Amino acid sequence: MADAPTLDTPLIKKVNISPIQQRIPAVNEDRTLSFALHGEINRIINSLANVTNYNAETIQLIIDTLARYNILVKRVADVEKAQQDALRAQALLNSYPDPTITMSAQTQTDGTATVTIIDHNRIYADNAKTTVPIIGGSISGLPLNSQFYVYYDDPSFAGGAVTYRYTTDNTVAAQVGIRHSLGGIATGGAQDTDPIDGGGVSPPGGSRVQPYKRELLNNQPEQ
Questions:
Q1: Which domain, by its residues, includes 59?
Q2: Band of pLDDT at residue 71, cut at 50, 70 and 90
């Protein structure tokens, strides 16, 4: 078998076979194929086999090289995606609404509270300070004298109309993945007629509740 090709050798080897020697007997006296001609035929067959094997190995070398190249390209793409994901996560973690106070809680006559969210902008902490408009909304039927954290999910970071949700666990509203927090808000008691502001996500991001709102909540009488 011919030596295996490398990247430094010609990729395809041409068939280069010398002609059958002249003046060699084709047959013996008994009209059988002569040993000399038989040897020449074997020489040609071996030459063809060597070139065929060489070219087959060359093709395999090309396939292996392309496979390694594709693996390398994929690894580079994976690294670039990981970097982009990290920058995206950092931009979200340190993002905030503008204005920072985006919510108010109003006690209703049915003994519940409604939180109203105003239209606002979301400012991401990337180099461009990307800003997208967010459409406001409301959450109704909330219990009085309670603390909540309001958030929404935005997979595309495109803003617009979003679905607002609430939780009593601030870790649920943490700005991770696709989750965007508006901060905390306290609902008042049955005697409260004025709306109570809420929010508190400010640069560099993260949820916190304004101290005066927590004091207001704690000073409410039990209902």
A1: 23-93
A2: confident
- CA distances 148 to 137, 140, 207, 221, Å, are 16, 12, 11, 18
Secondary structure (DSSP) of the chain: -PPPP-TTS-SSPPP--PPPPTT--SB-TTSSBPHHHHHHHHHHHHHHHHHHHHHHHHHHHHHHHHHHHHHHHHHHHHHHHHHHHHHHHHHHHT-EEESSEEEEEEE-TTS-EEEEE--EEEE--STT--EEEE--EEEEEEPSS-EEEEEEE-TTS--BS---EEES-TTTT-S-TTEEEEEEEE---TT--S-EEEE---TT------HHHHHHHHTSPP-
173 touches 97 (CB < 8 A): no
pLDDT for the residue numbered 219: 44
Contacts of 112 (CB under 8 A, 6+ apart): 140, 141, 142, 143, 144
Whether residues 117 and 187 share a domain: the answer is yes
212 and 109 together in one domain:
yes
The number of angstroms, rounded, from the C-alpha of 74 to the middle of its chain's C-alpha atoms is 14
- Where among 39, 72, 93 does a domain terminate? 93
pLDDT score of 206: 47
> What is the arithmetic mean of pLDDT over 64-82?
79
Task: Please say if the pLDDT value at position 146 is more than 80.
Answer: yes
Please give the share of the chain, as a percent, with pLDDT higher than 70: 66
